[in-house]
Design goal:
Strand order of the largest sheet: 3-2-1-4-5-6-7-8
Number of strands: 8
Shape: globular
Number of helices: 11
CATH topology of the largest domain: Rossmann fold
CATH superfamily of the largest domain: NAD(P)-binding Rossmann-like Domain
Bound molecules: nicotinamide-adenine-dinucleotide
CATH architecture of the largest domain: 3-Layer(aba) Sandwich
Distance between the termini: 42 Å
Structural class: alpha/beta
Number of domains: 2
Amino acid sequence: MRICVCGAGTMGRGIALSAAQNGIHTVLYDVQKEIVDKASDTLQHDLQLLVEKQKISASEKEAILGRLLFTTDLNDCIADIIIEAIIEKEPVKVALFNQLAELNHSETIFATNTSSLSVTSIAEKVIHRERVAGMHFFNPATLMKLVEVVNTPFTNAATTEFIVDLAKKMGKTPVLCKDAPGFIVNHVARPYYLEALYLAEQGVSDFGTIDTLLEASGFRMGPFRLMDLIGNDINYTVSCSVYEQLGEPLRLRPSRIQEEKVRQGALGRKSGKGYYLYGQ
Ligand SMILES: NC(=O)c1ccc[n+]([C@@H]2O[C@H](COP(=O)([O-])OP(=O)(O)OC[C@H]3O[C@@H](n4cnc5c(N)ncnc54)[C@H](O)[C@@H]3O)[C@@H](O)[C@H]2O)c1
């Protein structure tokens, strides 16, 4: 089996590594050469750390790297399944799938890692809509086990079965769900971020205090630390998308703080600053 992950950012890198670590030949594609180079450097570094911690041997590291092809050439994106983890914009995702449908064989599956867009709306615009589904990983993709497998009314049984099997091969726990705003986790988790943001908006408390209290009360990560990990651009887009798709309920109104962070380029860990500063 050969898979192709499109988008070598936060999610694409982790998805590609999870696949290669589980014996799957994986193409990792991005439009930006510097992102592909960064992904290659980061994955080599991550694997070296695993060797040093004696979690894998040096030869296993080489074998994993040997299963990864890093590329900016769309013609390399030939696979049994395309998993896109690119920018959260429907027209861009649709255009990529349709370009790749022309290049690939007639059975290739098109899976989207979208957090918040309608998978049905994407499928409707793709040439082979019966072979489109959601395959929603969580961040960091190498560690998080859950994968939401999102069916649309068009998805055929072979596509769902293939994605479920692939998720299991990657050591993940696939959970089937229907296409709905935010699917399961992003729908349930939305108030976790938004209520914390409203408290900060109103000056009730600051980011660090809110995080510390929620972590002390049992949450693995406070909302602001988690938003910085996810990426504030992604989190804001998901907030807006879920809000709009559910008919703009007041309780899910996106926060002006999210909008400001995005406008300032304070995207979280990936940009060196967000609610906190990183690596300075
Ligand atoms: N960040 C998260 O926690 C998270 C979790 C689950 C799902 N997602 C989803 O995964 C997707 C990617 O999110 P991310 O956080 O990895 O974003 P990111 O900004 O880190 O990476 C996106 C990458 O896509 C590339 N790209 C843009 N257009 C492209 C194209 N046409 N072809 C190929 N590459 C292209 C960009 O160069 C960039 O490197 C989004 O749909 C997001 O909703 C994100």
